[in-house]
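Input/output pair, single chain:
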Amino acid sequence: METNPLYSAYLGELYGIAFFTAFANKYSDDSHIHKWQLLINVEQITATKLKTELTSIGIPCPDHDAKMEQKGQEDAEQWLHRDWESLVDTLVNWVEPYALRYRQQAKAATEHQNLYHLVAQHEDAIWAFLQAEQQQADSGIAILEAFINQHQPR
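Output:
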């Protein structure tokens, strides 16, 4: 059976939470802690909305997935030693294919468009944040905050 792309995206959020949490807890340059916390928040908001909607249409979502969470931590461990500029350069290239894939899925979606658009918007926000950081623009944090303000539960 083919895995539902939205369920896969949900598992990706669990991965992302673990990945960014590893950086928040262990990255050597504490001046970026607020950025890690915002990235975690983006992932949590997206995961929560996906879980709520998927569960309502009969697709159960676990609160945790040990395999995805372990992979997120292990992947982060490989990059914890990098300085900010090198890390951002790596992450921009790493996030890009996901952003493009999620945009494509959102464009092609015939049902649950709101969820596909949410997933695409969340990945676009992360990618745009990283690009702003790469260009040392002040707008990076504002990009994440805009996503959070638009999507957090009221």
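The chain has one domain: 5-151. The CA atoms of residues 36 and 48 lie 18 Å apart.
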